[in-house]
Amino acid sequence: MSYTIIGILLAAVVILLISGTSSKLFGLALKGSVRVILGVFLLFLFNVVGALAGLHIPINGATAVLVGVLGVPGIASLAAIQYFLL
User: Fold this and answer.
1) Which keywords does the record carry (predicted)?
2) How confident is the model at residue 20 (pLDDT cuts 50, 70, 90)?
3) Which of 1, 48, 81, 82 is least enclosed by beta carbons within 10 angstroms?
4) From the centroid of its chain, how far is CA 46?
5) Which residues contact 59 (CB under 8 A, 6 or more apart)?
6) How many domains does the chain divide into?
7) Whole-number Å distance between alpha carbons of 80 and 58
8) What digits encode the pLDDT tens for the residues 5-19?
């Protein structure tokens, strides 16, 4: 199944390259990917430090995107939700 997904993504990239799509699309995708990866890294660091205080934020797609877009305020909001609501 993972080979199918990789094949579809690779075919989409080749089609976009052949059709002459501007590099802005690839730059935007790259910037978004870097932000999500940094979001995962920040969540990991928070979970390591937050374990001392008993806080844990699950690392999944939604939390990674939220932290990637919002940064530290995203972590603070997720920690507040985890602490006060759950």
Assistant:
1) Membrane, Transmembrane, Transmembrane helix
2) low
3) 1
4) 15
5) 40, 43, 44, 47
6) 1
7) 14
8) 788 888 887 877 777
